[in-house]
Specification:
binds fe (ii) ion; six-stranded mixed beta sheet; Purple Acid Phosphatase, chain A, domain 2; globular; alpha/beta; single chain
């Protein structure tokens, strides 16, 4: 069974469409690590598409902020402004769906899903020290996380923690990682709607645990049309510009 792993869609329907086109006929079930909305111009479209896919979705901090489940005191002014805009746009049925999303960790089809850190859904995992809890405590050998918008991850075996640099080259669509059990993995598929690892292409992953391979994908999409929609919606200019930079 092949699992399509989506994360940090951030209301970017053009990026999500490019991902679903590229992944067509390559997956059996789909999961989502949260941050369905926030930042981008298409909160209703992205939520509707995800609901239609029947994706197993956990909540992210933006989903919680938009639905009022967490305060935005810790958000920077730009992010807070996008949260307020998103809340005003969302149809009541989509707001209700987002507010009912479960928190991670969630075990599903042989993998574990978390938005941020294993012990705290709102914490970032950038460093090996931050990754250790998830590698040791997760109930499955392969755990997927999001939140940082950086594709890649960590693995652990025999008290050795390894940083996995997995980035498809600009000329390539994906890079494959071979899974070697009983080694443990904490993996980030990257962000669909707002990558921050220097590659502006939309990121996702496809996991095939039976064949012990996980593909980390990047797909281009028309960023300029998303930027046009963001400017038309008067979303903050720094959010518009960072899409092109992938930072
Ligand atoms: Fe995010």
């Amino acid at each position: 069974m092949r699992i399509l792993v989506l994360s940090d869609l951030h209301s970017n329907a053009s990026a999500l469409d490019a991902v679903l086109d590229a992944a067509k006929d390559r997956w059996d079930i789909s999961v989502c690590l949260g941050d369905v909305v926030g930042y981008g111009p298409d909160p209703n479209e992205v939520t509707a598409r995800l609901r239609k896919l029947a994706t197993h979705t956990i909540r992210g901090n933006h989903d919680k902020a938009v639905t009022g489940l967490m305060p935005t005191d810790d958000f920077n002014p730009v992010a807070k402004s996008a949260v307020d805009w998103t809340r005003a746009q969302l149809k009541p049925e989509h707001l209700a769906w987002l507010s009912a999303l479960p928190p991670g960790p969630l075990a599903r089809d042989g993998v574990v899903l978390v938005h941020g850190a294993f012990q705290d859904e709102d914490e970032y995992v950038f460093t090996p020290a931050q990754a250790l809890d998830g590698l040791l405590d997760s109930t499955a050998p392969v755990t997927f996380f999001g939140h940082t918008h950086h594709q890649g991850g960590f693995s652990y075996q025999d008290a050795q923690l390894e940083v996995l640099q997995i980035h498809p080259r600009p000329s390539e669509s994906f890079a494959a990682l071979r899974i070697e059990l009983p080694r443990r993995y904490l993996l980030n598929p990257g962000s669909i709607g707002q990558p921050r690892d220097g590659d502006p292409r939309a990121a996702f992953a496809i996991a095939d645990l039976e064949h012990q391979v996980i593909e980390f994908w990047r797909v281009p999409y028309d960023i300029s049309v998303v930027q046009q929609r963001m400017r038309a919606a008067h979303l903050p200019e720094p959010l518009v510009q960072r899409l092109l930079l992938g930072r």
